[in-house]
Design goal:
Blueprint: E1 2-4, H1 7-27, H2 29-44, E2 47-53, E3 56-61, E4 65-71, E5 75-83, E6 92-96, E7 99-103, E8 107-114, E9 119-123, H3 127-144
Helix pairs in contact: 1-2
Length: 158
């Protein structure tokens, strides 16, 4: 599943950085290019691919840079929640005080409690997709711990 910030956030990044970068490029082209490149990197950190399968949870920033990799055996429980990004340090990838978060906005998310006591929060897109992701992670964790989840997943799950 892909999660990303609202389009208005990307417009704000463009207005706040790309237009000034164009003006700066008139005098110093290399500096204008640097400002534009930094804006693109900042926007990339507000997009993530969330993968959940029988191996566990994996989150990749911009779909390529792995920032979270949680094996199924390390997951205790997962639940859907409505979170405020400010409670986790803001938007983007954050990791401090035993809590890691990849939040592209406030709102629906999945909170994963690990067996070692640490917590993770991952943006869930919509309330329905956050609930579905939490359900999949709970089922995967139950299987990894030798329990049953009550429903059987297809063998071709990936």
């Amino acid at each position: 599943m892909w999660v990303h910030a609202r389009s208005s956030v990307f417009v704000m990044i463009a207005v706040a950085s790309l237009f000034p970068a164009a003006l700066i490029a008139v005098a110093l082209p290399w500096l204008g290019a640097l400002v534009a490149a930094l804006a693109v990197v900042a926007a990339a950190f507000l997009c993530a691919r969330v993968k959940a399968d029988r191996r566990g949870l994996r989150v990749l920033v911009a779909g390529v840079l792995p920032v979270m990799d949680v094996p199924a055996a390390a997951i205790s429980t997962a639940s859907a929640a409505d979170v405020r990004a400010a409670d986790y340090g803001g938007w983007g990838y954050r990791n401090h005080s035993g809590t890691a978060a990849m939040l592209v906005s406030s709102g629906p998310a999945v909170v994963v409690h690990q067996t070692d006591g640490r917590n993770l929060a991952v943006s869930g897109g919509s309330p329905a997709s956050a609930a579905r992701l939490a359900e999949v992670l709970t089922r995967v964790a139950a299987r990894a711990h030798g329990g049953t989840s009550g429903e059987r997943a297809p063998e071709s799950e990936s």
